[in-house]
Amino acid sequence: MAFESFGEFLQMGGYGFYVWLSFFLSFLVIAGVALDAALGRRRLQRQSQTLQRRKRRLAKRQQSPVKESTR
């Protein structure tokens, strides 16, 4: 479909409101999914690092001799 002017392009033959609203909402949803994926990846990396540190600390404690408490 060819349009004579930019205004006709925006109006989309009378359906411009629905076309551009759909386009905008689709863009927002896709951007939200991308943002959620990026933040989820960062959160997963932090959790993984925390778990690795915890495992190293536990391994270090198990290797060191256990001190008896004197009460």
Automatic annotation (TrEMBL):
Organism lineage: Bacteria, Pseudomonadati, Pseudomonadota, Gammaproteobacteria, Alteromonadales
Chain's role: Required for the export of heme to the periplasm for the biogenesis of c-type cytochromes.
Topology in membrane: Single-pass membrane protein
Domain of life of the native organism: Bacteria
InterPro entries with a match to the protein in the record: Haem_export_protD_CcmD, Heme_exporter_D
Alphabetic keyword roster: Cell inner membrane, Cell membrane, Cytochrome c-type biogenesis, Membrane, Transmembrane, Transmembrane helix, Transport
NCBIfam families: cytochro_ccmD
Protein name (Swiss-Prot/TrEMBL): Heme exporter protein D
TM helices/strands, residue ranges: 17-39
GO cellular component: plasma membrane
Biological process terms in GO annotation: cytochrome c biosynthetic process; cytochrome complex assembly; heme transport
Organism of origin: Idiomarina seosinensis
Record has Transcription as a keyword: no
PANTHER family (alphabetical): HEME EXPORTER PROTEIN D
